[in-house]
Amino acid sequence: MDDQTRVELLKKLETMRDSKVIVYFSYSPLDDQILIPLYKELVAIGKTKNIDLFLYSHGGAVDTPYKVVMLIREFCEKFSVIVPFSAKSAASMIVLGADEVVMGPISELGPIDPLVKHPEYKDFWIPVQAFRFCFEYIEELACISNNHEVTEMIIKSLLAKLDPWLLGDYEKALKASKQYAESLLSKFMLKNNKERIKEVTEALTNNYYSHGYPICRQEAKDLGLTIAGASGELWDVIWKLYLMYEGMFCNVKCCNFSLSTLK
């Protein structure tokens, strides 16, 4: 990465947005490892009027987004998220705690139904909703075939392979996701449109069958989120910054994350 060019672009973005910009760019799951570095960056910036989080992430832990939002808001009056390309799952949860989200033509948010590790394949992550859909599918087959004995046998076989405590924990993860979403929306993004909170929460946790569903800026706006469209010179700066960080990470996608600011 050309560090001088990166610094110049960040300065230009801060001038255009009248803000302090924090960049979080990661191919690894978002988790609490971010909190101490983030706190150090915020202390270095100090209390300020506007903070923009330049965010690229495919998501991560259920609890971390809420912590990130509340920490950043200790240091600013207005908090915005800039999404150059993809801010999915837990990263989309951070967006719900912003006052606005800046999106361009290729920017994507995503559903916030939580992912959990497969009980047997430890490096394989699956949406919690997949368990519900499995049992719903079996019930549908039972109705079609009218063979309840076979259905009961299948369900018993599945349950024998699953730890009931694990299933309970998965259900708690889904409820936690909804709780965090409603809390962030009511405090921040939809604080002036509270009648939409449950509708938006339900849509983001239950209404999308693909965890990777791309929610573009128009769809996000239709949901009720506060979208600031990026175009012209502003979008050019955002996109150039994204490409620079992508170039830096393209050969090291296993590393944790990049967290940077201009002091």
Corresponding CATH superfamily: 2-enoyl-CoA Hydratase, Chain A, domain 1
- Count of runs of 4 or more consecutive helical residues: 10
Low-confidence stretches: none
Rg over alpha carbons: 20 Å
Label the overall shape: elongated
Binned strand content: 15-25%
Helix percent reads: 40-55%
Q: Based on the structure given, which CATH architecture is correct?
A: Alpha-Beta Complex
How would you name the oligomeric state of the polypeptide chains in this document?
single chain
Q: Within the largest sheet, what's the order of strands?
A: 7-4-3-2-1-8
CATH class: Alpha Beta
Secondary-structure element order, as H and E? HEHEHEHEEEHHHHHEHE
Number of strands: 8
Category from helices, strands and their pairing: alpha/beta
N→C terminal distance: 19 Å
Mean pLDDT: 87
Annotated CATH topology: 2-enoyl-CoA Hydratase, Chain A, domain 1
Protein name: Peptidase
Pfam family, one: SDH_protease
Quick structural gist:
It contains ten helices and eight strands.
3D structure, described in words:
The chain is α/β, with parallel strands linked by helices and 263 residues long. It has one domain (3-115, 169-261): 2-enoyl-CoA Hydratase, Chain A, domain 1 (Alpha-Beta Complex), CATH 3.90.226. It has helices spanning 3-17, 35-45, 64-73, 90-96, 129-145, 148-161, 164-189, 197-206, 217-223, 232-249; strands spanning 20-25, 48-56, 76-83, 100-103, 115-117, 125-127, 227-229, 258-261. The strands form two sheets. It has a six-stranded mixed beta sheet with strand order 7-4-3-2-1-8, sandwiched between helices. A two-stranded antiparallel sheet has the order 5-6. Helix 3 packs parallel to helix 4 and helix 5 (129-145) packs antiparallel against helix 6. The longest helix has 26 residues, at 164-189.
